[in-house]
């Protein structure tokens, strides 16, 4: 019999119950430490530090799960042990064991109360867990964008639709607003290209967009493409919320550029958050809140594996506990900062520590901020998202080419290494494709450098639309591109690159009143067969050279050992 997946409430209820189940063992441990402390007339400071950590953790987790009475007693005990630790070695206050024993008794009665409490009806007091909104910016769609064109002049539309299809857009054409209306209600497109004038009304197209907005409550991303170039038509487009207005005949490439901008409002990859907390339940709880908002979370409970985990998970932000047994959060942050690659990685402490001096010490090793326990889910999500976004922007500036937004040479080379290592570990295949525009010098010389740039941008756009999000697209040099295609057979990779080549060769570019087309050549190499990333690159380069030699506008497959399958 199949069971539904547990809801967030159910998962959190389980975590709270698990915390309560662990309380007797934790209390017993604290009592053991207390015995050690009492047996030592000099007061063993190691045990005092251990006790302090145990109380601190009970306070933080207790607050997070909404067990406020328990957390309050733990806080008093934490503060008292801190005073003991801070005293000079030769000064031990009389009566200290009684105070601590008293606090431990109070904790024991709280544990008893919780053991018999009805946890289902005892929800945390200040944590509106279930209202964390799923931010729409976190979902990824790998499908080709769907564009509806509504226009009653089929000749013009055919050419536009064919050009846009070359970029990987799915195009559906409607001759009248009625069939367009039905189609939108049935399946909402990613964007619309709409004419203004139709036989049944001078602004029937834009009126239709406005009425759809009213009916559905949502604005359709839309562009106007019209024969009209007058104030009334343009105003109707503004009022219908259209993003751009083109007068016929418009260049398909210009429309594709605007469509790209509209698509760019689409989601990014989810933020990657690494949680380091020695208490699995606490890590799980904070992880649930972040996952619920669409982030990708990885947890580790051991600060000693931090560097390996950073390498494999590559987070946008580290959310760490401040007190952990092997090393504390500040020490762990200092270790992270020793690695130049992670100098800019945001580290945020999630802690019940409110001591300013301690917070300042953490800031000195480059910790970005503190989120105080118990967390308010919305605040946790907002402050993590804000910092992770900043990290993304910074990384993107460093890793991407400014003309195309593709990965630059350095990043592409790094990704070739990591993709190959990943393919080897997972026993997957990897295809490296080197692509070079044909006779591009002549394009620049004949039509100008700006026209040449337009070609480079168009090819980048074609790759972005047509390849999977798991594939890597890099601008390897001026007019040279590199693709890393995962898990494809040589036949499939060859077929895919040939389709891209054919579609690209059909795109019509404009320079002044001249029109021209451009082609590219490609060489493909594979793992397995080439087992070092340098070999993969060289084999793909040689195959590309062969494609150029054989007449350009073609794809050549490289085999291991430098042979080619033409
Ligand atoms: N417009 C523009 N041109 C570029 C850019 N980067 C490189 N190029 C030009 O690309 C051309 C490359 O020319 P070549 O290496 O001689 O090769 P080709 O003319 O493409 O000929 P084949 O590769 O043999 O087909 C040079 O004219 C460069 O100036 C760029 O960012 N924008």
TrEMBL record:
Lineage, broadest ranks: Bacteria, Pseudomonadati, Pseudomonadota, Gammaproteobacteria, Oceanospirillales
Q: What is its EC number?
A: 2.7.7.65
The Response regulatory domain is annotated at 146-263, 272-388
Keyword tRNA-binding in annotation: no
UniProt-recorded name of the protein:
diguanylate cyclase
> Which residue ranges does the record assign to the GGDEF domain?
428-560
The PTM 4-aspartylphosphate maps to 195, 321
Which CDD domains did the record assign?
Answer: GGDEF (cd01949), REC (cd00156)
- Phosphohistidine PTM positions read 56
- Keyword set, alphabetical order: Phosphoprotein, Two-component regulatory system
């Amino acid at each position: 019999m199949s069971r539904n997946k547990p809801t967030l409430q159910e998962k959190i209820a389980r975590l709270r119950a698990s915390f309560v189940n662990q309380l007797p063992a934790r209390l017993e441990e604290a009592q053991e430490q207390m015995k050690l402390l009492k047996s030592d007339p000099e007061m063993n400071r190691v045990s005092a530090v251990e006790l302090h950590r145990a109380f601190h953790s009970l306070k933080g987790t207790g607050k997070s799960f909404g067990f406020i009475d328990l957390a309050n007693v733990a806080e008093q005990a934490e503060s008292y042990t801190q005073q003991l630790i801070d005293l000079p070695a030769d000064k031990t206050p009389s009566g200290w064991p009684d105070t601590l024993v008293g606090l431990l008794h109070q904790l024991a009665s709280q544990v008893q109360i919780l053991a018999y409490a009805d946890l289902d009806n005892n929800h945390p007091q200040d944590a509106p867990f279930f209202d964390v909104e799923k931010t729409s910016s976190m979902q990824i769609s790998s499908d080709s964008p769907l564009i509806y064109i509504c226009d009653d002049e089929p000749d013009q539309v055919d050419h536009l639709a064919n050009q846009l299809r070359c970029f990987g857009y799915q195009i559906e054409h409607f001759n009248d607003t009625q069939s367009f209306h039905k189609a939108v209600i049935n399946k909402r497109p990613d964007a619309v290209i709409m004419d203004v004038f139709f036989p049944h009304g001078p602004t029937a197209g834009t009126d239709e967009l406005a009425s759809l907005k009213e009916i559905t409550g949502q604005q359709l991303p839309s562009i106007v493409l019209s024969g009209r170039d007058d104030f009334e038509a343009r105003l109707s487009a503004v009022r219908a919320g259209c993003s751009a207005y083109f007068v016929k005949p418009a260049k398909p490439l210009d429309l594709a550029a605007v469509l790209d901008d509209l698509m760019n409002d689409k989601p990014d990859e989810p933020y990657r958050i690494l949680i380091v907390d020695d208490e699995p339940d606490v890590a799980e709880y904070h992880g649930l809140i972040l996952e619920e908002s669409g982030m990708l979370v990885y947890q580790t409970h051991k600060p000693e594996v931090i560097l390996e985990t950073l390498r494999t998970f590559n987070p946008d932000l580290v959310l760490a506990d401040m007190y952990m047994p092997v090393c504390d959060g500040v020490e762990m942050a200092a270790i992270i900062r020793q690695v130049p690659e992670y100098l800019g990685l945001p580290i945020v402490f999630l802690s019940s520590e409110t001591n300013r001096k301690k917070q300042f010490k953490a800031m000195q090793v480059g910790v970005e901020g503190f989120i105080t326990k118990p967390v308010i889910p919305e605040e946790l999500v907002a402050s993590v998202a804000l910092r992770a976004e900043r990290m993304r922007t910074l990384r993107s500036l460093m890793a991407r080419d400014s003309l195309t937004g593709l990965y630059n040479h350095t990043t592409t080379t790094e990704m070739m290494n990591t993709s190959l290592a990943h393919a080897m570990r997972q026993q997957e295949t990897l295809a490296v494709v080197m692509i070079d525009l044909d006779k591009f010098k002549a394009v620049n010389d004949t039509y100008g450098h700006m026209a040449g740039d337009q070609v480079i941008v168009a090819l980048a756009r074609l790759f972005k639309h047509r390849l999977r999000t798991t594939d890597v697209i890099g601008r390897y040099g001026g007019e040279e591109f590199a693709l890393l295609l995962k898990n494809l057979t040589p036949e499939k990779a060859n077929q895919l690159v040939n389709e891209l080549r054919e579609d690209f060769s059909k795109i019509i570019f404009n320079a002044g009143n001249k029109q021209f087309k451009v082609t590219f050549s490609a060489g493909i190499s594979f793992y397995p067969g080439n087992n070092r990333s340098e070999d993969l690159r060289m084999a793909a380069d040689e195959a590309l050279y062969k494609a150029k030699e054989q007449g350009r506008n073609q794809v050549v497959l490289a085999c291991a050992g430098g042979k080619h399958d033409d």
